[in-house]
Amino acid sequence: MTETASRARAPWHLWALALVSLIWFAGGANDYLQTKLGNREYLAMAAEGSGVSLEIMDGYVASFPLWATIAWALGVWGAVGGSLLLVLRSRFAVHAFIASLAGVAVTTAWTYASEASAPFVNTFQIVFSVLIWLSVIGMAYYSSRMTKAGVLR
Fold first, then answer.
1. 78: buried, middle or exposed (CB in 10 Å: 19+, 13-18, 0-12)?
2. CB–CB of 132/80 below 8 Å?
3. Cβ-count burial of 38 within 10 angstroms (0-12 exposed, 13-18 middle, 19+ buried)?
4. Which side of the chain, N or C, has fewer Cβ within a 10 Å radius?
5. If we measure between CA atoms, which residue out of 136, 149, 3, 7 comes closest to residue 75?
6. Cα 23 from Cα 34, distance rounded (Å)
7. CB within 8 A of 21, min separation 6: which ones?
8. Which CA distances in Å does 54 have to 45, 61, 76, 103, 112?
9. How far from the centroid of its chain's Cα atoms is residue 127's Cα?
10. Contact present, 152 and 6 (Cβ < 8 Å)
């Protein structure tokens, strides 16, 4: 039996979720890139949206220790990679989403434990963090189910 004949047909929701998750997680990737590249206009917009000055935003960004930056990158790029691996119907999507979960866990812990993050912790931030957690957990679960169903190879 060939590989093509032995794998299950991809359901419509695989393509829908892969596309939606890629768009959703691309927003996080954009935030990461704009922040790490020091885009002043982006940082000013983010500061204004958070109700803080650009100076406070700069201090917050500068306060990220290397390990927190690595965790943030793992969370962001793991989720983007997982979404792309879903498009490619690769069983490694689940591994990428699990790696993303590890990054999200460390980043979340640092965000809520760091004094530099205090001006940014509000109801919106908490709700947004919950949405990130739910989306990564959901995609890890979904990709695991699709692997078990033989849709991902």
1. buried
2. no
3. exposed
4. N
5. 136
6. 16
7. 79, 82, 83, 86, 135, 139
8. 9, 10, 24, 26, 20
9. 15
10. no
Select from 22, 62, 6 the least CA-distant residue to 38: 62
Spell out the alpha helix ranges (H) of the chain: 3-6, 12-36, 40-50, 54-62, 66-87, 93-113, 123-148
Q: Which residue has 């965790």 as its token pair? A: 71
pLDDT in tens, 47-103: 998 889 999 999 999 999 999 999 999 999 999 999 999 999 999 999 999 999 999
Q: Which two tokens stand for residue 116?
A: 């530099």
Secondary structure (3-state) at 150 = coil
